[in-house]
Amino acid sequence: MRVNNIHCRCTCGFRAIQPEILPMVLELEWVIKLPITVMTMCRCPTHNLNEGGSNDSGHMGYYEISMNTAKWTNHKLKYQEKMVVCAAVDCTCRNNKKLFKEAKKMEWNGVIWYPKKNFVHLDLKPRKNPFYRIIE
């Protein structure tokens, strides 16, 4: 797997990744037996708007996880801090049709294939019903 951009490309430095994303992309790469290039993961709201992303894009960090971290506050340890992380990745390979088909069989909550733009969007953002689309 080749990772081009984990952090926001506008140089703001936003980077907060949902822990399962990269292992799931690696698993998908193993399933399709083709190298996958990760093009985009995290975006700040301004960059997301400039890219034409939706207001509730998983790239902006809408997925909340509990971190088992400890922090000293008034001489007491505080646990279970919450952190907002990005839950989406845009990637490509030599056969995006196969990538799209196999990703739908996995635990992604959203899979969108953009054939003309040559990439597949994979999303872990929690949803009641997963969605799978092809957007020409």
Spell out the key features of this protein.
single chain; alpha+beta; six-stranded mixed β-sheet; 20% helix; Muramoyl-pentapeptide Carboxypeptidase, domain 2; 136 residues; two-stranded antiparallel ribbon
Report the strand count: 10
For the sheet with most strands, the description reads:
6 strands, mixed
Going by helix content, strand content and strand pairing, the class is: alpha+beta
Rg computed from alpha carbons, rounded to a whole number of angstroms: 16 Å
Written description of the protein model:
This protein has 136 residues and is of the alpha+beta class. The chain has one domain (2-134): Muramoyl-pentapeptide Carboxypeptidase, domain 2, CATH 3.30.1380.10. Helix content is 20%, strand content 30%. The chain is built from 3 helices and 10 strands. The protein has a 6-stranded mixed beta sheet, covered by helices on one side. A two-stranded antiparallel ribbon has the order 3-6. A hairpin with a 4-residue loop joins strand 8 (110-114) and strand 9. Helix 1 (21-32) packs across helix 3 (96-103). The radius of gyration is 16 Å and the shape is globular. It starts with a strand and ends with a strand.
